[in-house]
Amino acid sequence: MGRGRLILIEGLDRTGKTTQTSILTDRLKPNAQLIKFPDRSTTIGKLINQYLTDKNFNLPNQSVHLLFSANRWEVAENIKETLLNGTNVILDRYVYSGIAYSAAKDVDGMDLQWCLNPDKGLLKPDLTLFLTNESNDDAERDGFGEERYENVQFQKKVKKQFYAAFTEFETPNSNTLKLVDVTNKSIEEVSEEIWKLVQPILSNKEENQEFSFF
Ligand code: Z5A
């Protein structure tokens, strides 16, 4: 039995990550586990939740960045064990969100490499799907604007940093990163596109047993 595959869905706010990771996990059940970052249920996650939802609760940008990373390390071992048991793990946001949102703040010293450092050693996904929406209608989707970071100007900076991080930290031509344009597409159309991209990764489970790391 081959190890499970680690599949990440990334994207800007309201591009449909939660919708699509949940559809993909259901499609693969019982052979898939869904993990969403930030995991707001843990002790660290509760602090992150307070930071995101209460604009009067302030922390230094560096501390916030380290909390998001610590939140990933809290479940890192669980992810590895699940994969070794042959179960696929589907991630809703991960290291690239950590880098892109922090680097977009333009804080002196918090460049891409600084932002990656606390995540170094975490498992690298076998496939990263980045959902892009060119129409800006994601800003009109339910709930946009309720939390910190949810404004159009900041999202533009975040998008730039996502691409910069992919260029810096993905291996060129390795086929581990795919862009999925969700512009004007229904939930069903997007999920079909994702399914087509995921299937080849699942069918070569006997090969490629080695893990990659950030
Ligand atoms: N953050 C960070 O700074 N550092 C980190 O390391 C990490 C995260 C991991 C909270 O994340 C914040 O944390 C986030 C990044 C930062 N910044 N902000 N703001 P979160 O993942 O918990 O955020 P969220 O609010 O749960 O998710 P989201 O990004 O806002 O939404 P989404 O998951 O991409 O979208 P969705 O919930 O699936 O869909 C949104 C709505 O659109 C919903 O009503 C859907 O029914 C609808 N939808 C979905 N797809 C479609 C299509 N195709 N057509 C029409 N409508 C659609």
Automatic annotation (TrEMBL):
A single BP term in Gene Ontology: dUDP biosynthetic process
Annotated Gene Ontology cellular component terms: cytosol; nucleus
Documented EC number(s): 2.7.4.9
GO molecular function: ATP binding; dTMP kinase activity; dUMP kinase activity; nucleoside diphosphate kinase activity
Source taxon at top rank: Eukaryota
Pathway info: Pyrimidine metabolism; dTTP biosynthesis
Keyword entries, A-Z: ATP-binding, Kinase, Nucleotide biosynthesis, Nucleotide-binding, Transferase
Occurrences of domain Thymidylate kinase-like (ranges): 9-194
InterPro entries recorded: P-loop_NTPase, Thymidylate_kin-like_dom, Thymidylate_kin_CS, Thymidylate_kinase
UniProt cross-references to HAMAP family, sorted A to Z: Thymidylate_kinase
Entry's family note: Belongs to the thymidylate kinase family.
Name of the featured protein: Thymidylate kinase
Name of the coding gene: NCAS0G03390
